[in-house]
Write a structure and sequence with these properties.
The protein has a single domain, classed as Jelly Rolls (Sandwich). 12% of the residues lie in helices and 41% in strands. It contains 2 helices and 13 strands. The strands form 3 sheets. The chain has a 6-stranded antiparallel sheet with strand order 1-12-3-4-5-8, with no helix packed on it. A 5-stranded antiparallel sheet has the order 11-10-9-2-13. A two-stranded antiparallel sheet has the order 6-7. It is globular and about 35 Å long. The protein starts with a strand and ends with a helix.
């Protein structure tokens, strides 16, 4: 399912320079790889602002960097994504995922209420792109990416986008409030 990102969210992230993506989901299996895109704000597999995906039982988070860069296949990528793989965070039970991006360019991944990964700017060449430079015309995609080449199999219970970086307490509160039986 894809939908152009609501103008209100895009405008809100531009002014606050922070955003959060929340997903309650259950994978159909842990055989999915390439990675399968659970949630993204992008165009296709090479061009996106953000992606949360699955590679076997690992969570994969990618976020746009200051580009352009050349991919390993030699293709110029206008909107490169900085990969971060978090081992063993995908299972067959309903799971709560939150990705936050703060105004100081810190990306955090929370799984079931706890922070499991954090990316910070690491020198000029690895600097994550400020939200104001994100491509606003991309779509918000659930269970695939915009060109439909990276389908994810599973159940999505809830998906939300927030115009700010949720705090640890807010993430934990959302997990506790929505915990599925």
């Amino acid at each position: 399912m894809a939908s152009r990102a609501p103008d209100r969210v895009v405008a809100g992230t531009d002014s606050s320079h922070q955003v959060s993506f929340e997903l309650w989901a259950r994978s159909a299996n842990i055989e999915q790889n390439y990675p399968a895109w659970m949630l993204s704000y992008g165009g296709d597999g090479d061009n996106a602002n953000f992606m949360l995906g699955q590679s076997w039982d690992d969570a994969v988070v990618r976020i746009r960097t200051i580009g352009p860069r050349t991919t390993s296949a030699g293709k110029l990528n206008e909107y490169p994504l900085e990969p971060s793989q978090i081992d063993g965070k995908i299972g067959l039970l309903p799971t709560h995922y939150v990705v936050t991006y703060s105004s100081d360019q810190v990306l955090s991944l929370y799984v079931d209420g706890g922070r499991v990964a954090e990316m910070r700017p690491d020198g000029d060449e690895d600097l994550l792109a400020p939200l104001g430079t994100w491509a606003p015309d991309f779509s918000l995609n659930v269970a695939d990416e915009g060109s439909r080449n990276r389908p994810w199999l599973g159940i999505v219970y809830l998906m939300a986008v927030y115009e700010g970086a949720l705090s640890y307490d807010e993430v934990h509160q959302n997990f506790a409030a929505g915990e599925l039986p």
